[in-house]
Amino acid sequence: MFDPHAIAVVGASNHHGKRGNHAVRQLLDDGYPHPVYPVHPREACVLGLPAYPTVSAIGAPVDLAFIATPARSLPAVLADCGAAGVAGAVAVAVGFAETGDEGARYQAEAVAAARDHGVRLLGPNTSGCFHLPARINLVGLPEVPTGPLGVISQSGNLLLSVIAAAHRLGGTGFSRYAGVGNEADLGFPELIDYLGDATDVGAVCGYAEGFRRGRETLAAITRTARRKPVVLLKGGQSDAGGRSARSHTGAVAGDATVATAALHAAGAEVVAREDELLPVSAALANWPAAGPRVAVLADGGGHATMTADAIAGTGRLRLAEPAEATRSRLRRLLGPAAAVHNPVDVAGATDTDPARFAEAAELLLADAEVDQVILVGLIGGYAQRFDPTLAAAEQRASQVLAERAVAGKPLLVCSVYPGERSPVLAPLAAAGVPVMSSVDVTVRCAAAIAARQQWLAAAAPQWPPLPSPAAPPDGLRPLTEPAVRELLAAAGVPIGPHRLARTPAEAAQAAGELAGPVALKVVSPDVVHKSDVGGVRLGVAPADAAVAYQELLAQVSRAVPTAALTGALLTPMVETPGVELLIGVAQDATFGPVLTVGAGGTLVELLRDVSVQPLPVTAPQARAMLDRLGVARLLRGYRGAPAADLSAVVALIVAVGEVVLAHPDVVELELNPVLAQPAGATILDARAFVVD
Amino acid sequence: MFDPHAIAVVGASNHHGKRGNHAVRQLLDDGYPHPVYPVHPREACVLGLPAYPTVSAIGAPVDLAFIATPARSLPAVLADCGAAGVAGAVAVAVGFAETGDEGARYQAEAVAAARDHGVRLLGPNTSGCFHLPARINLVGLPEVPTGPLGVISQSGNLLLSVIAAAHRLGGTGFSRYAGVGNEADLGFPELIDYLGDATDVGAVCGYAEGFRRGRETLAAITRTARRKPVVLLKGGQSDAGGRSARSHTGAVAGDATVATAALHAAGAEVVAREDELLPVSAALANWPAAGPRVAVLADGGGHATMTADAIAGTGRLRLAEPAEATRSRLRRLLGPAAAVHNPVDVAGATDTDPARFAEAAELLLADAEVDQVILVGLIGGYAQRFDPTLAAAEQRASQVLAERAVAGKPLLVCSVYPGERSPVLAPLAAAGVPVMSSVDVTVRCAAAIAARQQWLAAAAPQWPPLPSPAAPPDGLRPLTEPAVRELLAAAGVPIGPHRLARTPAEAAQAAGELAGPVALKVVSPDVVHKSDVGGVRLGVAPADAAVAYQELLAQVSRAVPTAALTGALLTPMVETPGVELLIGVAQDATFGPVLTVGAGGTLVELLRDVSVQPLPVTAPQARAMLDRLGVARLLRGYRGAPAADLSAVVALIVAVGEVVLAHPDVVELELNPVLAQPAGATILDARAFVVD
User: Fold this and answer.
1) What residues of chain B lie within 8 A of the CB of A342, using their CB?
2) Could you read off the pLDDT of B293-343 as tens digits, one per residue?
3) B478 domain residue, yes or no
4) pTM attached to this predicted model
5) How close B155 gets to chain A, by Cα (Å)?
6) Are B273 and B298 within one domain?
7) What is the CATH number of the domain that holds B594?
């Protein structure tokens, strides 16, 4: 379908400005080497080619049908395509599910027709597709720069944005594109795999507002990310954004934090800004993954400082510490005024000889302490800035850098005279090295390169299909805390001593067995938030346990007269201090069960210090989730406090995930707080919801 | 000095590539209408002008000397300038304080010479200055686009960056520039005032790594910001950045958070990214301050969504809710496929008639519910994208938008076909409307416009000069908590009941007077962190107070055998829960006493939830500082908890600032925690440090 040896253009037209005219013309202009068949109900000839009334009337094999006819005609056209043996169709018409119920009906009819007749469908409401090495451009855009990027987008305008950005940047371009449109048949999972399999795609660059098949998409991203970089911009991050997303594609944008975390875990580099998507994709397409130690070579202190600031701001990169030998060589090369500690500031030493800048870059690239090098300053502009006679030397320096660039260590270039403004940088562009104009975007690219190495170094995540519990929220039944503890205990989770008492006498006996002050918590299927109704007593001596039990149940009865009271749960008071955490699983409409780890206690929503990942979560992943938390500093032992037992916490996180996966009826499960202590972790409260 | 009617170029040269050659040539090329006097020890003629051996040999009035001779000659040249009655000198030579002790000596000599001879000095180590409307360009850069921006920079390369950015953006440019260099004489305060006074400067755009005279700089910013926008990028935000900043100008970068907060409080718009500096400056120069309600007009759902996301991400803007009448008119104009809720997505309605886009923009601009309008999409590219015959209609639409732009309500334009790529946008550029390429940067500009309105609406802050305590940290003496409380009480701060006990009997009596369980805290000039040494007892009944006193002092004696023990402070146990805050003042090397308000308790450093501002802090400013905190939600009453008594907290904040200002010997003062309760605020602990 995407490498067709014959294309029918349904709705081909002699009228300039129509998509069906543009598609035929572009195929002819680009020299598409296989047959192009215009299809038009009445015209005998379109743009000089013989036209056919239907696809089946062509009478020769057709691989791909580009369909530019109105929405209502689509089911019939697809049926006709199927009769003609067409493999795939691209439907650009709008007026389907994105517009409401009537459109959704047309779309359902079209999908049924495609399925019945064995035709795969891209769209409808797609901006089209292109495959430039095969001279196929069906997006209606001329002058697309060619290069290693494969693009998937839920917005045609976003494709325009990245094409414009590639023009500005120079040194990069595109090989393939697919507009997902309404994802009626082919969607993100298939299209990501398609670009993942394409050898002419060096990196996948995508824009998504929502995913219809979240877990399949994660699996496709992970498959692809093992082989090549996947860079995604997620639209609809805000509520307002989400509203627009709905009216755009009919897809419901999932919760933004979950989506970002899920895509990141799957191996995608998720960019937060529209203006980062193309540069980060280009950098990842051009360079191998590399470490976080960055050397900065600047020809001015201001640029050196701003780059160092941006590096510190990423939290993922750090300034490399070049070897003493490198610094000595830099000193000899650049003279006494230069700063040869990283960031290196040549301080005018290259003003009269730009070649020295390339030599200095080579010294840094050769240093084993350096993972990546960022050049920042006037590169490409010495002749314009100082003396026109420097142009030849600049061109040579650019050539040297381009050759080094091929050698493999990332060399990111940021200049006041970027791509289009400096002809002497042509060798760098030819080597696929974009010359960027923003310090911040350049550093963002280096961060992506380092993040990719980190992701590749970890074991690939798995995203098995999971049955969706799909119960309405009001159809959920809470489990009592003892029941939750039993569930955990049955799965081998150490939950500590506890007793369920149903009478004052049982409470007294249980407290005696627990030997020391205890906590009493009401047990009732009707009480989820126990402390809100006075359902918790702390520090009760065994001698007082019977009375405390009676008081507790009386108090809860007064607060919730309708509550059925099972009894009370008794646990020993915790003596050892620790860090309060939350560990929980909830259902996401897009990605299924998602595990959350975070700062726990009563202020969870306020702190919003959480890591999330769709299940399953492995031990190394759980460890990484903890590392990303703000409370990670507390867990490591803050201000002289002992470090928490991270392996116990990690084991608990993994076990919580496994319990939920093993019990599809458990829709939500939350331990909060969990006390992460120097030895072990204690569950202080637990709740769960099940579907009946 | 900056509007000179005669310029001497000292170190003028016939050698192409030298600064002294370039300066003379540029003045001649630009048609500077007043005399230019080359000064050279031996040459009789430079670039066709008669040359003089010294400035005093010129024998005619000279207002400005541009000095391009080496470092060692500077004192003598300045003395000669003084003898000739020169008002100001610009010294571009390097090799002064930025290079070390020897350079610092040269610089001190130069400053002394300038002062002795009545010459104001810009530099040394400055990149120069320009004043384009007067045809004076002494930075050695040709082709600077002209426009309303005045630039101050501690880095010459940053000037190159903003010039390049202005070229890319179109529609903006520069009138004046001053490179601060080593700030040996003229520095940020004078140069900000200079640009503030200049009528041809519409906005001040600056880059600073450190400030020598922080409070004077704040005062100059506030003076200027009342009249025109001030936009600053602060370099040296990271430790590594700070290291480079030191080697660059010899200035020590102050603590990053304090600097950013201080500049913001003074009225500057502080940008965090290098690539935001020029666009934000251009937007603020072009548009009046306006409110936060933004209407988005997009010609594609993807761009609409991304813009809405970026707006939500600022935290300072919100999507406007256009009036029903506006939506009806948009519906009639754009047809049924368009989304007429904000963001407005024309959804193809303008593809064949770009004029409709301008009409839709006019409808939104006319709506009283809309403070700012962002256009995003293909503006300027319809002819390129769809049909070359649309160019004329696009040009007209651009003209209409340009005319509306003059009317005053901010109209920010972001296009896939920005400034340089689209000739049809020339009318917008001519009206001073930059067409940006980044959605994120465009939204950042709107946020700056809204922030300026907010700042202008508040009373102007005052930055009186303050004597610096300037004591070394090890020369500070701690005050005991009772002494701190007396200090606060003397200033009229309600500090609640408390008693100092010096014997067990006094403790018993004090506890009886306080009538209820009390807290006992050791009082010792040698113990600052009381709980770390077991110096705190909580919930002591009056009957137990004598014994608790003895145990407390014995415990502290064991922990700190050398501590002199004064006794114990008794306070009532606090019954009413509240939100823990920190209120403190510490000295900043650049800005003097800085007040900090934040989330309090033991995890202050971990949470880093703080607002800071140099003193003085007024009540409205204190209120705004609280509003910016993460714990603001808690203070407002979170999850059913009662709201805190904000006016009590505000009064306490203001009082703490006043106490420090009234007692210059009090270098640091910290109340932590302060419990912000539903009625009032209780100081739970307090400490202070004084110089003797």
Assistant:
1) 240
2) 999 999 888 999 999 999 999 989 999 999 999 999 999 999 888 888 999
3) no
4) 0.92
5) 5
6) no
7) 3.30.470.20
